[in-house]
Known about the structure:
This protein is mainly α and 132 residues long. The chain has a domain at 14-88. Helices cover 75% and strands 0% of the residues.
Amino acid sequence: MNAHAQTVEAPAGLPETFGKLLSRLVEVLERENADLRRNDLSMFPEYVRQKDLLLLDLSRLSRMHGDSPQLRALLDGELRRVKETLAENARLLELHLGAAREFASFLEDSIRRHRSDGTYSRNVARGGYGKW
């Protein structure tokens, strides 16, 4: 074995802590996904807050202990579940963003049409109707 290659063992309890954080992240994502499927965005700010806090905790733990091959092996299934749930979350968010873009485009086109038909022209505003 190479003198520089060391096996970094995960501290006791660390896999469980990582696992719990990953499970909580999946729970939040699944609740958000269910709400997105129902077009219910009322909890969106709360989901963002919860995900931010969980990701902060995960990144702190990763910086301190994330280079353990044993830890990665123990969490492989949980990480796969997070990745799959995140992919579904991204897909649903993209659907909602696409709908918002389409609606914004519709509004923009509608405003442009109203401006171009003379409804809001300066002549009408200054002289009134019929005084072209």
